[in-house]
Specification:
18 helices, globular, six-stranded parallel sheet, 31% helix, alpha/beta
Length: 525
């Protein structure tokens, strides 16, 4: 049992870390030990040391659970929730805790499987790569097949979009699969197929929110834009069903010459309906968007200034953001420097915080940048995400033109998809921006934000406070927890309690004190 527990808790390994002290000192200490850089992913801010245990891959295929003992008592958790995917904080185990037992469900008895690994030496050795497969057969056919790998962060945000994702009859199965493996799942839809039954099925599969596209409150415009007569009526009815079902939703609008004059009314209507956010998208001239008429750069400035004003007006009720126009951050910084929007990562996320997986398994930096970074049929997601030249170029390359000399480059960075669509270069200046850099020092973000990463508590959390934290979607949970601890630490507090969380909520960047999201209301019991 000691060997099994040790294999489950085995420390992560890395070629750059598993060396002598003098070797590591000569190369520069890394994030995993004593340093602040990663040699595996230069320019990155997280550790990519790999987990090298053999047994856990097989146990994951069999839906194993583990028991963890501490002086305060016992807790039990699924093994797939135990690992974080972060090299220097790879497991959810406190210093005073031990893994004491492993549980396999009765259903595991019907599976057969294998484990294979690539290793340097044929004798006992750590794997360079390991994969476990388990399957169950029935009447000569494979009834269920499971594959376990350890290369993917277990807490991503998965956006099921399209096209129109509700046309897929297996959408709930896909959502449930991702949810059961720790992802926060949301759906982006035109809303016309959101019946009460479909909403219930999505919620049952663990979907935490829905983004609904409404481009005008005029049927003549919206129906024409969405290519479907009666679609506005159907979509508005769907918004009412989402509200009745207590499933959080956001309203998404694409700004064009045809609806620019009613954007203010659309934002107001969204707040009245109870949306948690109003996202205003700006056209990227690619795909079907290539035939649409975009706003002129001067019009961008006017609309972005309006959005910056509205994000202040609706604070606490509804988040207002611009999408595919990161120079929105320049407007917010100039007009409302205390805005909580500046606490969030709204710099262009293309290939850095976000990517697209196409139906045929291709990875592109975002839905509006069609260049392929890799193919999931040939490589793992982790390998493509970490090492694909296109992704590394977006993260490490120097921005060109005035974007590269702009003082807002770390807050904004320009839209990389628009730069590629209009200039043919992912690092070119964003042609939609008319701002001329002032030649002053680069403005640093107020906070470092890294969505999807696990958070290791530095303060004591009561069991009730930790339970409330666990109800927050995994993709933002670490960010929220860090802000909570920072708030408490500034006031000399050392323990997080439910009462303190209630007090902090009013001071959080997006507190929704006037209309809490349903997931917050539900968490309050």
């Amino acid at each position: 049992m000691g060997t099994l527990g040790g294999n489950i808790c085995l420390d992560t390994r890395c070629l750059w870390y598993n060396q002598s002290l003098s070797w590591r000192k000569g190369c520069g200490f890394c994030i995993k030990k004593d340093g602040d850089l990663c040699h595996v992913a230069p320019g990155g801010d997280e550790c990519w040391a790999a987990f090298s245990g053999d047994t856990p891959a097989a146990l994951l295929c069999l839906d194993a659970e583990i028991e963890i003992a501490a002086a305060s008592g016992l807790r039990r958790m699924p093994l797939h929730d135990f690992y974080t995917g972060i090299g220097d904080a790879y497991r959810k185990l406190e210093r005073n805790e031990l893994v004491t037992r492993v549980f396999l469900p009765r259903s595991a008895a019907g599976y057969r499987g294998t484990y294979q690994k690539l290793r340097v030496r044929g004798s006992i050795d750590y794997p360079l790569a390991g994969i476990a497969v388990a399957l169950r057969r029935s009447n000569g056919h494979v009834e269920d097949l499971r594959v376990a790998i350890t290369a993917v962060n277990p807490a991503p945000l998965v956006i099921l979009s399209g096209g129109e994702p509700l046309l897929r009859h297996d959408l709930t199965q896909i959502a449930a699969y991702a949810t059961q493996r720790g992802a926060t799942v949301v759906v982006g839809t035109n809303g016309t197929l959101l019946s009460d039954e479909r909403i219930a099925a999505l919620m049952g599969a663990g979907v935490r929110g829905v983004a609904v596209s409404i481009d005008s409150l005029r049927p003549s415009y919206h129906d024409n834009f969405r290519h479907g007569k009666g679609s506005l009526e159907d979509t508005i009815a769907a918004v009412g069903r989402l509200r009745a079902a207590r499933l959080d939703f956001i309203i998404q609008t694409t700004a064009t010459k045809g609806n620019r004059a009613e954007l203010e009314r659309l934002a107001q209507w969204s707040a009245e309906q109870g949306a948690v956010a109003f996202n205003c998208y700006f056209l990227v001239a690619t795909g079907r968007g290539a035939s649409l008429s975009d706003l002129a750069p001067a019009d961008y400035e006017t609309v972005l200034a309006d959005l910056a004003r509205w994000q202040r007006e609706y604070r606490g009720t509804m988040m207002v953001r611009a999408k595919c126009a990161p120079h929105f951050m320049r407007h917010v910084h100039a007009a409302d420097p205390a805005s909580p929007i500046l606490n969030y990562e709204t710099r262009c996320p293309c290939g850095t915080q976000y990517c697209r997986i196409t139906p045929d398994g291709k990875l592109t930096p975002c839905p509006y940048l069609p260049e392929v970074a890799g193919d999931l049929r040939a490589q793992s997601f982790g390998e493509i995400w970490r090492s694909a030249p296109l992704f590394r170029q977006l993260r490490e390359g120097k921005l060109g033109g005035k974007c590269g000399s702009c003082e807002y480059q770390k807050l904004c960075g320009g839209c990389r998809a628009r730069a590629f669509a209009l200039e043919g270069d992912v690092l070119a200046a964003d042609p939609s921006c008319v701002y001329e850099p002032a030649g002053t020092a680069v403005i640093e973000p107020q906070h470092e934000v890294s969505y999807g990463q696990e958070f290791t508590p530095a303060l004591t959390w009561s069991a009730a406070a930790r339970s409330r934290l666990d109800r927050i979607p995994s993709f933002v949970r670490g960010v929220v927890a860090k802000r909570v601890e920072d708030w408490a630490r500034e006031r000399g507090l050392h323990e997080i309690t439910p009462e303190l969380l209630t007090e902090i909520r009013g001071a959080m960047p997006i507190d929704f004190s006037k209309r809490k999201p349903f997931f917050v209301q539900n968490a309050d019991g």
